[in-house]
């Protein structure tokens, strides 16, 4: 069984370059008729999700409050129409494709599309479809023709191009409506889309797993927008690529991002060179340099002594607890020896002390003689 999630759809997201805004949508439909949603759609402006919808919902959910203001209602009503219509188109397309291939079982049909607007005014729009995770067909917006990625998609190309009404709707959306909506979002959503949040940088040291060296992790987090440049620098000038492993830019739960970049340093290089993590981001007036100060190795003698001292303390506590428990149990025993009276106790004490003193005196006299 194939289970598609919003996270799976978002794997299609390609990050817009700096100075570029985008309006994008992602959708997937499956032929799996179970209780899970067989259709999921996500809409995003830049890298911020503004709506979600699946086949278990009556209507799409709007996730950004500022879209309710000014012209937002008109925009949202239009997007709702596109989302619901897209649901029907995707179902029909998947059904026809399965029949054309004479396939059985569970299959998927995916679609990603939208438009991008650069700061210099350049515009691009696109629409791509995939069947079972492989390129199937795409729309050339400039010529308004469909391009089959595989021979089996030619039938779909002819079918779409013959539908003049749907072709005109696609032409209106990808050449005009999408860009109008994007420009509106940029204007009214600038507090969200154009905000700048400084990154926090932390260096984490650990022993390398596959060598005698040290891994130093530069953890950069809490920044927005998404675009960031993180590099390891040696001796303040040499940009390092060898021995450096970079993770992906990942989202945090507060609409900021994080990135980890790991440098492996040999014991010899650690003695001869200095290293720093350099971060460049739109929120910074200048690049941020965080120098790595190697942590001193722990003295194993002190570590062992500390472990033994802690162990001794634990043993002492356990023995003390056992003695206390034994004494408390003896005090409560029904066959205990009756306590002596004060007079008897004093007499016994004096007698004992006297005998002890006589014995000590006798020893001293013997030593003197």
Automatic annotation (TrEMBL):
Region ranges (Disordered): 331-369
Superkingdom, taxonomy of origin: Eukaryota
Keywords linked to the UniProt accession: Glycoprotein, Immunoglobulin domain, Membrane, Signal, Transmembrane, Transmembrane helix
Protein's UniProt keywords contain Coiled coil: no
Family as reported in the entry's similarity comment: Belongs to the MHC class I family.
Name of the protein this chain belongs to: Major histocompatibility complex class I-related gene protein-like isoform X1
Domain Ig-like: 199-291
UniProt signal peptide: 1-18
GO BP terms, alphabetized: immune response
Annotated TM spans: 300-324
SMART domains from the UniProt entry: IGc1
Gene that this polypeptide is encoded by: Mr1
Gene3D superfamilies in the record: Immunoglobulins (2.60.40.10), MHC class I-like antigen recognition-like (3.30.500.10)
A GO-annotated cellular component: external side of plasma membrane
UniProt KW Signal keyword: yes
SUPFAM superfamilies tied to this protein: Immunoglobulin, MHC antigen-recognition domain
